[in-house]
Fold:
Amino acid sequence: MIDRKTIADHNLTLEEYKRIVELIGREPTLTELGIFSLMWSEHCSYKSSRVHLKKLPTTGKNVIQGPGENAGVLDIGAGTAVVFKIESHNHPSYIEPFQGAATGIGGILRDIFTMGARPIALLDSLRFGPLETPKNRAIMDGVVAGISSYGNSMGIPTVGGEIYFHDCYSRNPLVNVFALGLVEKDKIFYAKAEGTGNPVLYVGSKTGRDGIHGATMASAEFGTETEQKRPNVQVGDPFKEKLLLEACLEVMERALIVGIQDMGAAGLTCSTSEMAAKSGTGISINLDLVPQREEGMTPYEIMLSESQERMLLVAKKENLAEVQRIFAKWDLDAVQIGEVTASGRLRVSFRGETAVDVPVDAIVNLCPIYRRPTRKPAHLKAVKKFELPPVPLDWNDILLRLIASPTIADKEWVYRQYDHQVQINTVLLPGADAAVLRIKGQRKGLAMTLDGNSLYAYLNPRTGGMIAVAEACRNLACVGARPIGVTNCLNFGNPEKPEVMWQFKKVVEGMAEACCFFSIPVTGGNVSFYNDTEGISIYPTPVLGVVGLIDDINSAVSPRFKEAGDVIVLLGENKEELGGSEYLKAAFDLEKGPPPGIDLETEKRVHELCLEAISRGLIRSAHDISEGGLAVALAECSFGSRAKTGSIIDLNDEIRPDALVFGESQSRIVVSVRKADLSVLLKLAAQKGVQAKAIGKTAGREIIIRHAGREIIRLPVEILYETWKKSIPQVFSIL
Amino acid sequence: MRFGVVIFPGSNCDYDTFFVLKEVLRQDTTFLWHKDHFLKNVDCVVLPGGFSYGDYLRSGAIAKFSPLMREVGEFAAKGGIVLGICNGFQVLLELGLLPGAMLRNKNLKFLCEFVHVRVENAQTRFTHKARPRQVLRIPIAHFDGNYFAPPELLRKIEKNNQVMLRYVDEKGEATEEANINGSAASIAGLINKGGNVMGLMPHPERASEALLGSTDGRVIFASIIEKFKHD
Structure:
């Protein structure tokens, strides 16, 4: 008998339970209840987010597959397509940082290669609490090691990403992982279970008790007993997954199978029911045939296990032996555990008895959809009102503090732990505005970036959502790439809180408007709610993964200054905007004010100008101005250059000089050009309707910034560089 | 000249090495499967980088039991040319085709970055196209690259001129800071006494195309190819 406590323990409401009884015409068995609890969890069903996500544009002429599959697919021409997606692994990474992050990588890679694509790139967006706290250092150390261990072993380069630090992530770190793969357009596979009588194959690792209820865990707030949830985190085996990758790609390359789905969240439950639901068929399986790691597992445990490195395949009947031969070559079992039926039902037998017999449609498609109440959070009023502090006295000191703040400081300590060059496609090493990869045998190149400033979204969710899209596209423009598609990971607090839901709604609206404006389709993504610990929600954190194309890979531009004597040009307009800036936080401990404004029309014109100038070979370096403003951007351009070339800058705008130097006004790019090309660039800018101004030159070994003739910053690049370089390693050397 | 690139189940630089040999250097190149028992008449066997068997145990410790490794051992004993890159170097150490062993990097982290290595012996079939003491800029990517040999053995290796590459700074000095993983005597690459087996931790295949930032790695492949022509 199912009692109220059992229902509550499964994170289901009484109404939801009643709906289940109605849909299947009787009380569910415990195993069936477990199945519904997983598939109707927020993580799997998107029941709170769906009504809002509908606003995102998902179509376009290059879209081969939009949301709803394992990953999105875009046509990039010449018979090739890219398959990409982002996923969160936040909750597991807090409980067990190494395995939580590692299995996040394993999961996102399976999403890519189940579609027939060979993964060629990983990026990750990470959020941690301040590093002064030992616990936060331990989390970061574990997460980075976990990503490194899994990605490196699989031979997929981690080519980029971003890391922010903020107190709101102390009890709730974010680990968002993005992967991209390449596939021939006519060899894409889907999660289909077609053809009555076709064998259903289980491949990969054996099933254990690990990860039971992972998806439900990710759909609830954490309390103080979170540590006890450690057994809910799975353990990764990258070597096994490497075998799985090669074997799966081989059977797909030879078109031996009908469909395939990975067993990620909700394991065997999700893969069987989704594949059948998508094809309008049913699936019958016998759990006695499922390879098991432990003795005495119940049907409930087998169906709900989230053991890693497993796949479900539907083979063509006549190819069964050949499929099994290929898996044997890679030392893997491919066990037939059932077959496709015409029943429209998921039927599971165990020791001769029926454990599950429910319509797949009920599990997959008939979860209640919620339009949850929304309420504007009270903090928005409080943060609006603030008085700008007086202009500071020691500017050099502030620049050094900004450079040393972990969010801005060098991340080499992190990315040197990732193999970022394997597969020999990496054209720009990590640290550039966007990752740039060549495509072997093609002139085109690929660029990708992850972006999302949660402080902006906290101060103004709608603007925050728009800026996340705009900045990602700007990063692509800086390397010379045109955006072609988006995936997104939306990290929020508990959606049952009306304030959180309001933030979610506004962020999605902002993103939708920007994506529509830039004509870039959203091909998929992930929503991670319940990022709360002991009642405190994280800042709303949208992370945008944008993929772009470069016409000629040889024209890709890096942010580093090339040589002394070039002219530095600012594309875009300086405005007096300091709200939400790293400067306010670092210098005055203020998180207030409106975030910088964003005008999409202006933004787009700046991108167009940058792209055209790059394709005409005018631009020697380009770097987006973001956290820390112009001064930090200039320093970063110097750091990349081998000779540590400095710059001399003269600014004359009649705005507060701190806003000029450290403000984060959007739609700005700082570029360097040869003297001889300056007039051509300025003329082009005028044609495109973009403000562009020569603000100085690359020179010497110092960064010198003058405002209205008065010197306000003068620092040797070497000192800035050392500060920037050592900030994060220093923290970890005292571990 | 015909190259054979070995595929262990967890190799992940196999395709990279194959690509550089075949598409960039235009050499006749084939894959060799670790479960096979023959070497397809190749003139040079390349053991590529990666995690041959997951490397949960000591790196390369299981790979040495692959059926194909017996063939590679015999091939090397007869003077066949064998090049081990990164994990391939580790396998050669485990096989005993090169002396010494690998420990975890001194900072106990995986390290992926461009490093500088100096050519210590430019008179071998793997390095003769380099200038003596030429500094090469080539990336590394490993967790276990901290070369170890007991003092006695180390002396012998040095005396026999078996050290091929040493970690150095940009100017070519073998400083402690430049010795990125803590290797004994800053050793980044070794050759056997017979001069036909070489192992190195840096990845020359990652430094063979200008688009990727360096072509310094080519000197190793070019040396092998040219020497073979004149053999």
The longest strand of chain A covers residues 118-128. Chain A touches chain B at residues 145, 148-149, 152-155, 237-240, 242-243, 246, 330-331, 412, 415-424, 426-427, 429, 438, 440, 553-554 (CB under 8 Å). Chain A has 26 helices and 28 strands. Chain A has a mean pLDDT of 94.
